Amino acid sequence: MLTYRQSDDTHIDRSALSRISNEGFGPESPNPPGYYRRLLHDVFEAIRSDHGHQQEILRMIQDHVPLHQIRTYLDQALPETQAVKTEEPSKKVKVQEIPEDDTPQPRPHAMDIRYLCDNAPCKVPAKPWTNVTDDDDLVSHLVSLYMTWDYPFYAFFDRRTFLENMEKGNLNSDFCSPFLVNALLANACDYSQYAEVYTIAGDTNTKGAAFLAEAEGYMRTHSFERGGDTRLATLQATLLLYERYSVLGNEDFGYTMLHRAIEMAEELGIVNSEKLSLRSHQLSEDMIRSIQRTAWGIFQIDTIVHTNFLKPSRVREVSVPRLPREENGHEDWAPYPISSHSQPSYMNQYFDEACNLSYIARDISRSVQIADETKVSLNQVKQDVYNRLCQWETDLPEIFDPKGHPAPHILLLRMRYHALMINLCCDNFGNYSSFATMEKRVPMNLDPGKGATAPEVALASARQISLIIQLMRTQYGMRYVHQFAMYAINVAIYTLLEQADFDILDPDFLHLTNAFATISSRSQVGKSLYHFFKLSVRSRDSGQRLATLEVIPAELKEIFAAHQAGEANSKPGRSDSNQDLKDNPSSMPSPGLKDMIGEYEKLSVGREERPFDHRESGNFEF
């Protein structure tokens, strides 16, 4: 198990210090003369200081934290009279740096977006795709962020074909449209503090809100597309809106977009229909590949969403062949903008394994239905699914081993596997509602060879999620991680929280809580869930034990701090027990895993039972 970095870890990455001292002195540098020399000077001043900044500075250097984040940290860490203030490099973009994880909140700075976009892997134009901005650098930055961090997890459109057509600026393209581009840019703003601080023509809306508004306008325009007239780019844009709404928590629009996308895929005949032959003499290779990506991508999204929220998946079968596993198997991935150091992405192997896992997820979500249809006991169905899950993990290629520091989408795939294990073991689909009720029934020995019960298997998976989160945080930080990680963190936290012998100082619980606090700050849904989590912990009345400790971990200080006005980030009325918990946490039963999943569903995608054609007055229509 990984532990926190010890205070005697003083190894200095000399190559990283050399990078700081030599980078950016050329005439093309967007920063003013002397910027990097002053940065290096302040790095050494912080290391020499007696204020405990050495370990944080060394960690940032070793983890290849971007230099502008180090500059921001130094401006807070060093005394005002000592820190050398950075001149304003450009009036083009005003930003407020938002530091990674626990870095103190900084003062406003100026940063030219070109500082990042000089190395942006995706160079694409703003026009004619969006009316929100004509800044090619900003659009290239946002597209690069999305392609680096969000795209690989679902990969429901063909990256190469999309970028080629966007670069050409051809509005008649089958693979790129203003609807698709604006939906993508709205999603990408979730990762970029640079985009979030723009204002538009005096309006207080952010750039992300403007991209979303333009995408919604195009959605109305494309609402007439039905049946064979449905454009693939429209379906892909609809899936992007599902992603965006599930982060914003826009009432029931998450499920609305997902259901509409599935309907469109059914109308095209690529899911839930007879096998569809994709002939090369009728379709281009680009179109065939794009159709395959979209069909199998929506299958993955559907099984992730419905299994996460303990409901039967809607996509039963994919009607087109799967992509070849080794096609373009040597693409590289680099953690833009953290570092330019690249590594193999293994994208097609990953996508194939994700499809295999999606079939198992589909059967987990439909286990009750399968038991009814086959006349086999539900426990036997779950035993069979458990065996398939174990075999899936056993068959993973060695290159997917977390110890080999793979790309984050591979780490997320393993987290998805363990989240499925927890969902399966908690048996929320049929017999059991929580561990508490499970203990009153005959234990389900999912692993007869080891004699492990379902709660033990779930607990082991929760600790594995904690370990993977620690690896991810060490390698890439939590700022850019895909939002699915928040779900996996939540199910792991509540699995630990529901144990009868739960220890609030459990290292895995602390690691997960720390990561949750960071990733939840990126969205309204995350903030609401984090508040719900704090109430859950407080309801255990664990503060009595913490009061006896001389040193209280920072993660728990915030949770057990005195209530302050306006602390609750959740929307009024979202949870029936929310106010009671807030008023008197120890008087309420501790919300469990099922309660959290229900709250998560309401906050992110809404209520699936709501009729598809029901809309609030004034909202968009299809």
TrEMBL record:
Domain Xylanolytic transcriptional activator regulatory: 145-329
Single GO MF descriptor: zinc ion binding
Listed GO biological process terms: DNA-templated transcription
Compositionally biased residues, Basic and acidic residues: 1-16, 85-97, 573-583, 596-622
One Pfam family this sequence matches: Fungal_trans
InterPro entries, A to Z: Notoamide_regulator (IPR053187), XnlR_reg_dom (IPR007219)
Region of interest called Disordered, as start-end residue ranges on this chain: 1-33, 83-108, 565-622
Key words, A-Z: Nucleus
Protein name (record): Xylanolytic transcriptional activator regulatory domain-containing protein
UniProt source species: Penicillium salamii
